[in-house]
Design a protein that fits this description.
- 2 copies of one chain form a homodimer.
- The first copy, chain A, has 175 residues and is mostly helical.
- Chain A contains 6 helices and 3 strands; from the N terminus they run αααβααββα.
- In chain A, 48% of the residues lie in helices and 6% in strands.
- Chain A has a 3-stranded antiparallel beta sheet with strand order 1-3-2.
- In chain A, helix 4 packs across helix 5.
- The C terminus of chain A is likely disordered.
- Chains A and B meet through helix 1, helix 2 and helix 6 of A and helix 1, helix 2 and helix 6 of B.
- The structure holds a DNA duplex (30 and 30 nucleotides).
Chain lengths: 175, 175
DNA sequence: CGACATATTGAAGGGCTTCAAGCTACGTGG
DNA sequence: CCACGTAGCTTGAAGCCCTTCAATATGTCG
């Protein structure tokens, strides 16, 4: 979503095969930017999907699953954007990319978006993203090959850093 | 969600009649705190809901609607938490409360949660929430009666402030 | 009333943003 | 092929907003 002050907030990051979140209103109030060349964005009219879903329980079930996945991403995103520090945000982002991209051998990750997009995704400034990456590099946690290729050397360091600040108390509530 | 460092991030704020977001995993990884006395939290087992939804298109449709509403709240929350300043966050919160609570006459709002909860909801510190409120008070935008009762005097000021920083470019994408 | 949680207010410090200047990578045209 | 221009990235310095710590105030319940 673009904002009047020139800032954006990237609400969701979709990789091939992912589905976009829907909005509750009648109007689409988001924009979709296709980054990867050859991306096909398929939009389905609300009303027709509703009708089809009414008749096809299987489709309805898939819609629920897809939507829940989007909600999970949103909630995780909210945690990241809300509290933790810049370096931890960038670290979490790298981990997420490593998990969601078909990761090559030995933690090699090709970043699908630019620093500017990462900044908008994490609610940071470009400069801070850059600084965080060089910080991680200097600490030997990652290795940068070019600007888009990141090798995660010490995945445990990222993971423990993230978990330290994101760890939820695992409760359950009875039915 | 509680975190190891003592911070929380309140993911969603439910008022009477609202439904909670679901998570995609098998485990519940959130906690539900009931604030209002007499609150009844109804939990439905995942599997059974799925079965019922398969057989009842009407129920399935309602589930979709409820979930989309939750997603909308999450997206709005992401925008607020992500970028804007403390005063704007608090202002947006007041507007949201005024809109979602059955608002009394002349913009009188009874805050359903404490400053601490507001702070966690907006990803701020308690002190900053308090300062923002007194700032709004001094500027004559609101009047505080006790700690939980807020009268919104200049709703337009809040609204324009929020819209200035949250305004999205309204695009549509064809099908 | 006293005790405790909740709110407010002050002061110091830190992390992020902003502005500004190089730097790198890449494509285009000479 | 190389020069050049632009977009993306990095790095530095100054400033601001928020956080943190600390103290006081308010209000709530025994």
């Amino acid at each position: 979503m673009a904002r009047a002050d020139g800032h954006r907030q990237i609400v969701d990051l979709l990789l091939p095969g992912d589905f976009c979140g829907f909005t509750a209103g009648d109007e689409y109030d988001c924009t979709v930017d296709a980054i990867v060349e050859g991306t096909v964005v398929a939009g389905y009219p609300r009303r027709r999907v509703e009708m089809l879903a009414d008749q096809d329980p299987q489709l309805a079930r898939e819609i629920r699953e897809v939507t829940l996945g989007a909600m999970s991403r949103l909630q995780a995103q909210l945690l990241i954007v809300g509290r933790i520090t810049a370096v931890e945000k960038v670290g979490s982002f790298l981990l997420e990319m490593a998990a969601r991209m078909s990761e090559g051998p030995s933690g090699l990750v090709l970043l699908p978006i630019s620093r500017y997009d990462i900044a908008d995704y994490l609610a940071l400034s470009v400069e801070t993203v850059s600084r965080s990456l060089t910080d991680l590099k200097h600490r030997g946690v990652i290795v940068l090959s070019g600007t888009r290729c990141v090798k995660i050397v010490d995945q445990d360091a990222l993971r423990s850093e993230r978990d330290r600040s994101l760890a939820c108390a695992h409760h359950r509530w009875a039915h």
